[in-house]
Amino acid sequence: MSLRQRSLRGPRAAAAVTALLALLSTPLTAEAAPTPPAQAPTPAVQARVSVPAQAPASAQTSASAPPPVRARTSPHQVVTWGASVDRQGEAPRDRSYRMVVRTSAGGTGARVRLSNAFGDRPVTFGSVHAGRRQEGARVVPGTNRALTFGGAGSVTVAPGASVVSDPLSGRLAAGSDLAVSFHVLSAGGPSTGHGMAMQTSYATAGDHAAEEGAESWTDRTGSWYYLDAVTVETGADTGAVVTLGDSITDGWQSSSDTNRRWPDYLARRLRATAGTEIKGVANEGISGNKVLADGAGQSALNRLDRDVLSQPGVRTVFLFEGINDIKAHTGVTAGDLIAGYREIIDRAHTAGICVVGATVLPFKGWYEFDPEGEAVRQDVNDFIRNSGELDAVADFDKALRSPYDRERLLPALDGGDHVHPNDKGMQVMADTVDIKTLSCDR
Questions:
Q1: Which of 372, 366, 299 is nearest to 334 (CA)?
Q2: Lower Cβ count inside 10 Å, N or C end of the chain?
Q3: 57: which strand partners?
Q4: CB-hemisphere CA count at 13 Å for 38?
Q5: 26: CB partners within 8 A, 6+ apart
Q6: How would residue 74 be classed by pLDDT, with cut points 50, 70 and 90?
Q7: Are residues 405 and 339 in the same domain?
Q8: DSSP assignment of 288-306, as one string?
Q9: Residue 266 in this model has a pLDDT that exceeds 90
Q10: Is the pLDDT of residue 12 over 50?
């Protein structure tokens, strides 16, 4: 249940850490902006088109360009929620989305990032609002406020680009449900989003982003569209951790609409722990994702810049990937995976970010299991535990494996398919993380 910090990288700032578990704690209340999830949209109903009063501002941030190493600036921004994006289905026009997301770090000046990373034509957002989610698609009255982009009420995002909103006044509380609502005025071709949100969001035809009630939001979705990050302004010492992973990190087999993915449990621990500067958690897991090859989303290597290095306030990347490379029977060797890990470590260190690595979980009982894949897993885990190249190690394998068959998950923690942990297993993973090792100053 321990993490081994790599002394060669230098000690983290000393902090008194209280290992206080916050199991399924009641979220704090939000005082400002929101963010919501979405599912595959149903075909758009032709309804009235709201023409923006102002000419749309143009997005200038390229989704593919490597981000610069971010220095601490004033005001200091920290990511409070994030989700990896991928190519989704056809993007309908004149459709509104209300995405529901859970914050981690609290702060002022909330901003949202809208992405058209996988689009092949511009997307125009006619209006964007954010507010505190009350229940379902309903927003707490008086909290749903308009967001602007360079002072404009609408924005056009070029193919392969993303755009960040102006800050909202007021405070956004930690551990609160944020509803980000926006009207897609014009679109087409593939949409950009996160397919498996494990959270219900909402959609509807026409422009309803400013509405606080739930009546118009007739369509439900289990995906997030266009929204890929929410940030807040905090004290200069506050930082964030990004969890880079696959479906286990994405939360498959955890209970939907309950925020029981292992990064959610980690966020609750961080909120309850005095003495740690790490308060933000961005979950950048994609179901089916691999370290080396594109497929279910871009590979970890290919999306590292967008999903990790571009996020403000990131202190640490938590690397927990590899099972999909191993069990796919594509000929990937332990040496191949280790080379991929080393590239991620080097690129993160160059950006001033430390890397915590987690051992790969057992998968005996899954239909792709075989002794050859298990041998690769064991060699990879030996590298993670003993190479000394990571700044710290979380031994998820040791914490979740059966003491009677170390190639299997402990049945009490198995979600049923012998690869993905259940809610309790997710909690055990979060509890395995030594919080001290996340406060890495490089």
A1: 372
A2: N
A3: 155
A4: 31
A5: none
A6: low
A7: yes
A8: T--SS--BSBS-HHHHHII
A9: yes
A10: no
Instruction: List the domain range (segments joined by +) for residue 433.
Output: 7-24+237-438
Measured in degrees and rounded to the nearest 5, phi and psi for residue 255 equal: -75, 125
Tokens of 156: 């056009």
What is the mean predicted confidence (pLDDT) over 310-323? Answer: 98
What does the pLDDT read at residue 196? Answer: 97
167 with 244, same domain? no
Tell me if 324 is assigned to some domain.
yes
pLDDT at 67 over 60: no
Ordered DSSP codes for 409-431? B-GGGB-SSSSSB-HHHHHHHHH
Backbone angles phi, psi at 261, to 5 degrees: -70, 155
Last residue of a domain, one of 184, 208, 230: 230
Q: Does the pLDDT of residue 142 top 70, yes or no?
A: yes
Give the pTM. 0.84
Last residue of a domain, one of 180, 204, 230: 230
For residues 223 and 197, is the Cβ–Cβ distance under 8 A? yes
Cα separation of 96 and 116, whole Å? Answer: 16
Residue 39 domain-assigned?
Answer: no
262 and 332, same domain (yes or no): yes
Residues 158 and 306 both lie in one domain: no
pLDDT (0 to 100) of residue 6? 41
